[in-house]
Amino acid sequence: MAFDTKLMEILACPVCKGKLDYDKEQQELICKFDRLAYKIDNDIPVLLETEARRIEIEQD
């Protein structure tokens, strides 16, 4: 799935309401602030905190 720009502008993290980044390889939406990854299931983002997985963010 390739999210278009307009869709990515309106999608937000359900926890902090911040910007999400699309990880095409993992098919996930990433909130770097909360360090959560939300899966995309059958082209539908699952934006539930209880379904998200914790991730480690590498510092540049």
Which structural traits does this protein have?
single chain, 60 residues, mainly beta, five-stranded antiparallel β-sheet, 1 helix
What's the short story on this structure?
The protein has 60 residues and is mainly β. The protein is 10% helix and 28% strand.
Description:
It is built from 1 helix and 5 strands; from the N terminus they run H-E-E-E-E-E. By secondary structure, the chain is mostly beta strands. The protein has one domain (5-54): Single Sheet (N-terminal domain of TfIIb). Strands 1, 2, 3, 4 and 5 form a 5-stranded antiparallel sheet that branches. A hairpin with a 4-residue loop joins strand 1 and strand 2 (28-31). The radius of gyration is 11 Å and the shape is globular. The termini are far apart. The model has no long low-confidence stretch (mean pLDDT 88).
Share of residues in helices: 10-25%
Topology, number of strands:
5
Give the terminus-to-terminus CA distance: 27 Å
Helix-and-strand structural type: mainly beta
Shape: globular
Radius of gyration: 11 Å
pLDDT averaged over residues = 88
CATH topology description? N-terminal domain of TfIIb
Number of domains: 1
Give the biggest sheet. 5 strands, antiparallel
Name of the CATH architecture:
Single Sheet
Strand content: 25-35%
Q: For the record, what CATH class applies?
A: Mainly Beta
Supply the number of helical segments: 1
